[in-house]
Specification:
The protein is mainly α. Helices cover 65% and strands 5% of the residues.
Amino acid sequence: IRVELPDSARHDLGVIRQLKVPGKRGYVTLENIADVSLGSGSVEIDHRDRSRSVIINVELNGRQLGDVTAQAEKLPSLMHLPLGVNRADSGDAERMKELFGSFGLAMLTGVLCVYVVLVLLFKDFLQPFTILAALPLSIGGAFIALMITHNSFSMPSLIGLLMLMGVVSKNSILLVEYAITARRDRGLSRFDAIIDACSKRARPIVMTTIAMCAGMLPIALGIGADPSFRAPMAVAVIGGLITSTFLSLFVVPVTFTYVDDIYSRLKKVIGYRAA
């Protein structure tokens, strides 16, 4: 059974205050146990994971989602939330986090695949680490280029990092493969083989970098369709190529000597041999 007040009484606070409600010692009026007043409330209550939620929609107005999210996180109201109130991303912000996590897994898988291929090519488990040592150099250059050009770290820049992995690995392969061949076939010492590899392989490495940067330059300058999406990718590729090209000529030979020393020690201690 449902009992309702007439429409005329629903707007009369005096009538509502005098409503009788059951208590421990009989009925009492509503005004004795509650404050009765007119106000407004939510038309509907949204839930997320069984908890009440309030959804705030923000118009980007042409700005990058990452920049808007970072600026929103610095608001005092979001930095000092009341007890029991949590902030959860949804919509594009949630998908962006999932995308970054997926790209992290993709990059790790790509590095593992490159390592497996290098092991098969060099028939060795240690020398591929020399080639992979150039990958962090490209990532640092990509970040610096994005900071200088005021581009955010977004999905296009992640795609550029994936492209860098192949090009940078190829440059390192040129150095390491030539040094190994010079030691094995020409009988050069390790130092002479490294110097010879750097002097003779520097030209094709630099030419490849210049050609790649020249091809990416129009996209980085925003020439063409959809420059806001493609420009960060080109900037990341150019920055990573520049730093990896010049630093790999110093870092890769040094790493090669350390790996070769480890190889020699393992061979003496446990009789390690290349597969």
